[in-house]
Design a protein that fits this description.
The complex is a heterodimer of chains A (373) and B (539). With 373 residues, chain A is mainly alpha-helical. Chain A has three domains: 227 residues, no CATH class; 63 residues, no CATH class; 65 residues. Helices cover 62% and strands 2% of the residues of chain A. Chain A has a two-stranded antiparallel ribbon with strand order 1-2. In chain A, 34% of the residues are buried. By secondary structure, chain B is α/β, with parallel strands linked by helices. Among the domains of chain B are: 70 residues, no CATH class; 234 residues, P-loop containing nucleotide triphosphate hydrolases (Rossmann fold), CATH 3.40.50.300. Chain B is 36% helix and 22% strand. In chain B, helix 3 crosses helix 4 and helix 3 packs parallel to helix 5. In chain B, 54% of the residues are buried. The chains are: A mainly alpha (373), B alpha/beta (539). Chains A and B meet through helix 6 and helix 7 of A and helix 3, helix 4, helix 5, helix 12 and helix 13 of B.
Chain lengths: 373, 539
């Protein structure tokens, strides 16, 4: 019964990743050691728990993206950063004269080590948040995550699934068409090559979408009772309105003094709308779900471990443990607080709790015959 | 179970109806095979069963189609999903999910079947079609035969009463085709399923068919009947039937076993004239291409491991082997489409990878599995002109080649609107125009009917006579038997047999053509050989 792919519930991994990201977001002046520890824990869990599927390798992409973010953040700081941060001057860029209305922006000037380090740490914060989501992404098949969508959002989910399967196909088609062009003695690169490739690729893409549409229809996609149409519209509208209001409400709650203090009530209304929409939609849905992902002990453990990291960070913050809010003016090595370190290390427990899937997972082999000519 | 009453169907913009006044009934529990030349409307008929025609094709349908008492007029394809399971020509393009098990459950989820029942049916289907090893695999990683079985399984789980299949074995090697057909026969025999399928390679399906629907295509009415009756006069007939007709056996044998029982007399009569190894080349021929210790791998999968092969002029070489044995990869390496990871390939003494496209097409031409890939012009004449330009030939050269292969292809037609045979001829003309000494073809007979195949065989043999080297990768053993001088069998990326076609093919249980099976142990390969022998021997 322990089919390997029936592993951990996809939402558990996303909640865990989200919790780690939240832990990294705690202050606007974060401790770089804690940030690095969070990233290390995320990478460790991915390395032990991921499978062999294509998306399992996406963490590498997120790590590269994170590095780029840090680099960009430093470059921006050097070019346009805040001047007048006291400290060690590294070098001085020539100041560009700007008109008076652009006084808030400055270009060039003295660049201090302190400002660069601060920028690097802020960049690192964004990078670590990205890595946390990247970790969740490599642990969970995007398809399985879509299967968790409530029935109302099913149509949107199918659209995303189709798009996901479409991309590898498109890349394959481009390769095939390129080879075919070469066989006709026509250059396949450069601007002229591009034009010749675009037409057959797009034709193929359209063909494929039509085939897919007919295949989905022939297999019963979109069957529903005619009477349910009204309810369906109602459910969709209320969910959409609920999501919109939720955005407004969150803004009201976060930005103090806006919306005349109505943030919380608006949020409450939004939640109610979403819930009723989902309930309505769930009732009319004729679909059933094959082997739905179950929520068990492992899932609880994973989510709890993620929450432990957030809780430890929040607690340390509230207790004003030294090393939680770090300033690099004047420059110095920040202390490493014990409580958050313990919390973050706890978030690494899924590596031991989540059943080891790696060996069991079916090896995905590329089909040899399906290789473009 | 399925009833067509006075059904006519015309595609929008077409001058003549594709189906004209078709009346037909398929009773429950029958395996019904739809036969006819290409372009006569077999696929249209199949897609009309569950209403995909006209829902997804456009055009005008007259008359009524009813399945299990439900008319396609009032029921959309999705409303018939619980009665009709439809499996299209290319399974990969019809998959909706990405994993085998999810694909198996997809239809049932749409039908809202109870989760525990769903689970049970998936397990049953997995056992029935032998999918256990595959259930967690990504769909894209499966071989052609596996994909076809999953596609059948994916519609079976919804326990439909009718299964409609469009050329279910056309992409499969002989063994995988057998596997799929056996599974289908089991469904008909054990579960009383009604199966309707179209197939070009009748030699594969004939033994299993209960009933045949012949679409003559020239506007003549559709003929429905027992296979033995239909095969008596049909223009599309497998070699076994042609042999039976030629010798005058009655009733016509449809299986090799039946034919062997009747062939005792024939065998002794023509035995002295057995051609044996007649088609062996008389003198050593000049080599045009060589592969030396070629190895290619995709990730951890070895596609080719140390392949040594010399291709000679004036010879038709047939590459055979099961799906995924490395045939396409070998052709891709020979045509410069893929750099070997080990070893070397030379064509005309040059490395094909180092040649610019314009120089490459003078050395080697490849017709890919889907000939439409080579064609991207707006019309046939447009294609011919751009081929002339690409190889700096005088205007009209490609058109001349095309007319020699297949006269009368309309110049103003869009390549997409040509029939399969015409499209293949056009692609072949485009490839042959610069007269490359090496011509490669990858599965050229997919979707070709018997008359188009005859023409292709004539063209290939003529090319060989003119001194071209022709290499052909195919699953079609009948084609191989008729055209090959030499046969090369690949298995898991290695050459396991290489020699005169007679020696390689005759005694193989998988690759032997029907005539060879009927007349074994004498080494007859084709009907033409038998015909010739019968003319010389007195009755």
């Amino acid at each position: 019964m322990s089919s390997p792919a029936r592993s951990v519930h996809p939402l558990a991994w996303w909640l865990w990743g989200g919790a780690l990201a939240a832990a990294a977001m705690q202050t606007s002046a974060p401790n770089p050691f804690l940030l690095l520890l969070i990233a290390a824990v995320a990478c460790f869990v991915v390395a032990t728990c991921r499978g062999n599927a294509p998306w399992s390798r996406s963490l590498g992409f997120f790590l590269k993206l994170g590095t780029a973010v840090v680099a960009i953040r430093i470059a921006v700081e050097i070019l346009f950063g805040q001047r007048g941060v006291p400290g060690h001057v590294l070098f001085t860029l020539p100041r560009a004269p700007l008109p008076p209305w652009a006084a808030a922006v400055s270009i060039g000037g003295a660049v201090t080590l302190e400002s660069v380090v601060t920028a690097a740490v802020l960049g690192l914060q964004i990078a670590v948040i990205l890595v946390c989501f990247g970790a969740a992404n490599s642990l969970v098949s995007p398809y399985r995550l879509l299967r968790c969508l409530p029935p109302v959002l099913y149509e949107a989910g199918v659209a995303v699934t189709v798009a996901l399967s479409f991309t590898p196909e498109l890349i394959e088609t481009i390769g095939t068409v390129r080879q075919a062009r070469r066989l006709r003695g026509v250059p396949s690169r450069g601007l002229r090559g591009m034009r010749g490739i675009a037409v057959p690729v797009l034709e193929g893409a359209l063909d494929r979408s039509l085939q897919l549409a007919s295949s989905m229809d022939a297999r019963g996609y979109g069957r529903r009772s005619e009477a349910g149409n009204m309810i369906r519209v109602l459910a969709t509208v209320s969910v959409a309105a609920g999501l919109l209001l939720a955005a407004v409400g969150v803004y009201g709650v976060v930005v103090a003094g806006s919306l005349f203090g109505l943030g919380l009530p608006v949020l409450a209304v939004a939640v109610a709308l979403c819930a009723s929409g989902l309930a309505l939609g769930g009732r009319r849905a004729q679909r059933s779900r094959y082997r739905p992902d179950r929520w068990g002990g492992a899932e609880w453990a994973i989510v709890t471990s993620g929450l432990a990291a957030v809780a430890a960070m929040a607690l340390a913050h509230a207790l004003e443990v030294p090393g939680m809010v770090v300033s690099f003016v004047p420059l110095g090595v920040p202390p490493v607080p014990v409580l958050p370190v313990v919390g973050i290390l706890l978030a690494g427990t899924p590596a031991f709790v989540a059943p080891a899937r790696r060996a069991a997972r079916a090896v995905s082999q590329p089909s040899v015959e399906a290789v473009p000519v | 179970m399925i009833r067509f009453e006075g059904v006519s169907f015309t595609y929008s913009g077409a001058a003549r109806p594709t189906l004209a006044d078709l009346t037909l009934e398929v009773p429950e529990g029958e395996l019904c095979v739809v036969v006819g030349e290409t372009g006569t409307g077999k696929s249209t008929l199949l897609r009309a069963v569950n209403g995909l025609v006209p829902s997804f094709s456009g055009g005008a349908l007259a008359g009524t189609v009813t399945v299990d008492g439900r008319s396609t007029r009032d029921h959309r394809p999705r409303d018939l999903a619980d009665v009709v399971g439809y499996v299209g020509q290319n399974p990969l393009s019809s998959f909706v999910t990405e994993r085998v098990e999810d694909e198996l459950a997809y239809t049932m989820e749409n039908l809202g079947i109870d989760p525990s029942a769903m689970r049970r049916r998936v397990e049953d289907t997995v056992d029935l079609l032998g999918l256990h090893e595959l259930r967690d695999r990504p769909l894209r990683s499966l071989s052609g035969g596996q994909q076809q079985r999953v596609a059948i399984g994916a519609v079976l789980t919804a326990s439909p009463r009718v299964l409609v299949l469009d050329e279910p074995t056309s992409a499969l090697d002989p063994a995988a085709a057998e596997e799929v057909l056996n599974a289908l026969t089991r469904l008909v025999q054990d579960l009383g399923l009604t199966v309707v399928m179209a197939e070009h390679r009748l030699e594969r399906v004939l033994p299993f068919a209960d009933r045949m629907v012949l679409i003559p295509g020239d506007g003549a009415p559709v003929v429905v009947g027992r296979p033995a009756e239909i095969m008596r006069t049909a223009t599309v007939a497998p070699p076994l039937v042609e042999l039976g007709r030629h010798v005058g056996w009655d009733p016509l044998p449809l299986t090799v076993r039946d034919a062997r029982r009747k062939a005792l007399n024939l065998r002794t009569r023509i035995a002295p004239l057995c051609p044996g190894r007649r088609r062996e080349p008389e003198q050593p021929r000049r080599e045009v291409a060589q592969a030396r210790k070629v190895g290619v791998h995709y990730g951890s999968v070895v596609a080719l491991g140390r392949v040594d092969l010399a291709i000679r002029r004036g010879e038709v070489t047939v590459l055979m082997g099961r799906n995924g044995s490395g045939k396409s990869t070998l052709l891709a390496t020979l045509s410069g489409g893929r750099t070997p990871d080990r070893g070397s390939v030379t064509v005309g003494g040059l490395d094909p990878r180092s040649l610019r496209p314009a120089a490459l097409i003078r050395q080697v031409g490849l017709v890919p599995q889907d000939p439409a890939l080579l064609l991207y012009g707006e019309s046939v004449s447009d294609e011919c002109h751009s081929a002339d330009r690409a190889s700096a030939l005088e205007t009209g050269a490609t058109r001349n080649v095309l007319d020699r292969i297949l006269p009368g292809v309309p110049a103003d037609r869009h390549p997409r609107d040509l029939s399969e045979g015409q499209r293949l001829a056009l692609a072949l003309a485009v490839v042959l125009a610069p007269a490359p000494p090496l011509v490669l073809l990858d599965e050229p007979t997919r979707g070709l009917d018997y008359p188009s195949k005859d023409r292709l065989i004539a063209v290939l043999l003529e090319l060989a006579r003119d001194g071209h080297a022709v290499v052909l990768a195919t699953h079609d053993v009948e084609l191989a038997a008729r055209v090959a001088h030499r046969a090369v069998v690949l298995a898991d990326g290695e050459v396991i047999a290489d020699g005169p076609a007679h020696d390689v093919v005759c005694h193989s249980p998988v690759f032997a053509p029907q005539v060879a099976k009927v007349l074994a142990p004498d080494e007859w390969l084709t009907l033409d050989e038998v015909r010739l022998a019968l003319e010389t021997v007195p009755a």
